Amino acid sequence: MTLRRSASSGHLQRWVEYAVDEEPLICTRTRAVNTLTPPSFAVPLNACDAHVHVFGPLARYRPVPHPHYTLPDGDLGKLDAMARALQLQRFVIVQPSFYGTDNSCMLDALDLARDRARGVAMVEEDVSDTELAELGARGVHGLRLDLFKRAELRTGEVFEYIVRSGRQAQKLGWHLQFYVPGGVVRDLVPYLGDLDVDFVIDHMGYMLESDGLTRSDFDRLLDVMQRGCGWLKLSGFYRVAKDGNFAKLKPLAKATVDALPGRTIWGSDWPHIPDGGRDSGELLNLLGNWVPDQSARRRILVDNPARLFGFRTEV
């Protein structure tokens, strides 16, 4: 899967997700926990990995028609082993596109993980208040909006969808989580200051240089988020720096932590679809390198996610 720039729609350039061919990406096995790089810093108690996915057997949990990738090697047991190896006591299970709005696998994992975990669900727009309350009772604390699917819409239409979803989330004290291409993020910047609900943008805004996005675009995003309700997630480093040059992300991470000290969180993006062999320990240690201050790391790993996802002070 890749991104291409579509023809301009009015004065706006749209970014559209499309399948390069009909064959799904082949997911590889997850890395053995005994080969993970250990943490290079003292991981604080109740540290949280704020972006993981969980998958289960095909016989029990059916994917959407024509998923973009094969079933990942990412069940709850392997997630738990990874988290314990990296001294991460908490994690947030984000509903993957593989299952669409059928949150069954995530909910079953939340039932088993109990107070260690929270969930971010994907729902249909006509979801009832009763259904949302049932999700909340099982540990869901946010709604994930797949804005890749709406990237062909005009920016105003995308924002109207966000506002409608925000009203649903606010009823339960939840937040919105945006899975969104960087071009759409850039176009949404003039609108985001009007949101009165907490929202999280995944993967450092997904602002790819290869898509023509610049540091100025990123700085404008941080400015509007700093003055509003926005949170930024330090995650998906290999999705933003596709060439593996993570060093170029360090200035962006520093700028994020400086601008949003109380609204920055970190996530591994385990099981690293489609490359399950990636080293989650290496990704955690990038945070240690980019954020050398111990108190700042504690905010990112403990205090901020506890506030956003409603974790108890102690578990």
CATH homologous superfamily name? Answer: Metal-dependent hydrolases
Compute the number of structural domains: 1
Calculate the mean pLDDT score and round it: 91
CATH topology: TIM Barrel
Shape: globular
- The CATH C-level name is Alpha Beta
Main sheet attributes: strand count, strand direction, barrel closure: 8 strands, parallel
How would you describe this protein?
There is one protein chain. The chain has a single domain, classed as Metal-dependent hydrolases (TIM Barrel). Helix content is 35%, strand content 17%. It has ten helices and ten strands. The chain has an eight-stranded parallel beta sheet with strand order 3-4-5-6-7-8-9-10. Strands 1-2 form a two-stranded antiparallel ribbon. The longest helix is centred in the middle third of the chain and has 16 residues, at 155-170. Residues 1-20 have low confidence and may be disordered.
